[in-house]
Design a protein that fits this description.
The chain is mainly alpha-helical. 69% of the residues lie in helices and 3% in strands. It folds into two domains: 74 residues, lambda repressor-like DNA-binding domains (434 Repressor (Amino-terminal Domain)); 148 residues, no CATH class. Keywords: DNA-binding, Membrane, Plasmid, Transmembrane, Transmembrane helix.
């Protein structure tokens, strides 16, 4: 079976580019990407998005099949349709993996930033004269949301098993994570969006709740905070569930 080799692809891309007397920046400018992106392709660290394969081949004067195989075909050599189809499918898989990997890195970064923000908020609340006991609920909710977010951002799988795409399944179980939503079927068309909703709401709640705490103390003191702290978290959670249903149904 023909498999796409990242390093072979990158070496071939660099060779053909140099034959055309083009720099990485020249190729990047024609494709509307950065020269760092082209450098990653040539070093075998990533693959181009599948939508760029035809433009790259056209610019370099080769075929998409030659590009994916990492070598020029002899004039009398042709590949059967099965081999070509396998190469194209594999290129889709590699492109998807690169996209998923980058998306995961972005969410891990967002999670780390959120931890820093919550720590700063806790310090500011303390400096402003609010005791640990008074802000206890705020910190507890923020830490709980960060705990959920840590799993969602770091460990949650970006793709569901294929049987989700052929069956109507309204629950997902991954490690310690369990979700069951009656009336909403999960599949790979909507799972990425659902994960995004959960991530945004857990990180957002972790950051927003201490702010609500501070404003409450600023406006009405401990009595106002005791009045709004439970309704606030209920409203945020209901908002997450409603948004999940809307987004999940839209892309179902």
């Amino acid at each position: 079976m023909y498999q796409i080799n990242n390093e072979k692809f990158g070496q071939f891309l660099a060779e053909v580019r140099k034959e055309k007397q083009m720099t990485q920046k020249d190729l990047a400018d024609k494709l509307f990407v950065s020269d760092k992106t082209v450098s990653k392709w040539e070093r075998g660290n990533s693959m181009p998005n599948v939508t760029l394969l035809i433009p790259i081949a056209d610019i370099l004067g080769i075929t998409v099949t030659e590009l994916l195989q990492g070598e020029k075909l002899k004039e009398n050599k042709t590949l059967n349709s099965d081999v070509v189809e396998t190469l194209v499918v594999n290129s889709l898989d590699l492109s998807l993996r690169d996209t998923i990997h980058q998306r995961k890195k972005n969410w891990i970064f967002a999670f780390l930033i959120s931890i820093g923000v919550v720590v700063i908020e806790a310090i500011l609340l303390t400096v402003s004269g609010i005791s640990i006991e008074q802000m206890g609920d705020s910190l507890y909710i923020s830490l709980l949301m960060l705990l959920f977010a840590s799993w969602l951002c770091i460990f949650a799988k970006e793709l569901l098993p294929t049987y989700y795409d052929t069956n109507k399944v309204n629950f997902v179980s991954q490690g310690i994570f369990r979700i069951h939503m009656a009336g909403l079927s999960f599949n790979n068309a909507n799972w990425g969006y659902v994960l995004t909703v959960f991530r945004v709401f857990t990180l957002g709640t972790a950051i927003l709740y201490p702010i609500i705490c501070y404003i409450s103390f600023l406006v009405g003191g401990i009595s106002l905070w005791n009045t709004v702290k439970h309704p606030a978290i209920i409203i945020l959670l209901i908002g997450m569930l409603v948004t999940t249903y809307i987004v999940g149904k839209k892309h179902e």
